[in-house]
Design a protein that fits this description.
Blueprint: E1 7-9, E2 15-17, E3 21-22, H1 28-41, E4 45-47, H2 55-64, E5 73-78, H3 87-99, E6 104-109, H4 119-131, E7 135-141, H5 145-154, E8 161-165, H6 173-181, E9 185-189, H7 196-200, H8 203-212, H9 216-226, E10 230-231, H10 238-245, H11 254-261
Parallel strand pairs: 3-4, 4-5, 5-6, 6-7, 7-8, 8-9, 9-10
Antiparallel strand pairs: 1-2
Amino acid sequence: MADITPTITLRGGLEIPRVGLGTWPMDDADSERAVLSAIEAGYRLFDTAENYKNEAGVGRGMRASGVPREQLFVTTKFNREWHGEDLVREAFERSAERLGVEYIDLLLIHWPNPEQDRYVDAWRGMIRLRDAGLVRAIGVSNFKPAHLERLRTEVGEMPALNQVQLNPFITQAATREYDAAHGIVTESWAPISKGHERLMEQPVIAGLAERYGKTPAQIVLRWHLELGLVTIPKSGNPQRMRENLDVFDFALTPAEVAEITGLDGGTGAPADSDKFGH
């Protein structure tokens, strides 16, 4: 397994690893241990958020690894109380302090909270942060095409990345299509789904795992990669972390990708970002 995972280039030229470590719902102690183990396994991308209350632990794990800061990529997100052109700077400063870093690689608006109607103002503030060199790239999380379209028409600059709930049961086809058409990288959270066991038991997943000599989870993660996505599976288990990263030595055929995509709608629905957010 390579020490550094393959990357994809974001708008503006920053490279982000294709597979990273998700940290929700770990606390500070668990996230510190997980990040350290993940770095030892070869991970370089770590995803956290103000709302996860584990930014300090993620930062401690990064520092404990001894890997130079510039070789690590940290993403964090801020809550609705900072949705304002001038408020975003304070959100950045608080997250950077908790993480113990001077800059953040990728800062995201966690939810659009459209009933509050201030995410466009927050986006303007994020552009200022990026232009000041405090963050290397800026993006959004849980944004639907309608939310993104407002950023395009009212601000004129699109996010580098849109992080959304996405797995074979919730394929987010419309969002993926919009993102791709506008140069936005799509990143999957909960990539192996909340209904993990049910997804792993699907005949197409189990059959492909047997065919390729991989675990069902590795088949699902490879599906994300075949779709051109960045993905951030969460695990605190070092063995599973290594397995989740060991997905670059095989490829699924277009027909196999389509068969997995055909599982869409298999369980529930994504969190509705027109109605939910923090």
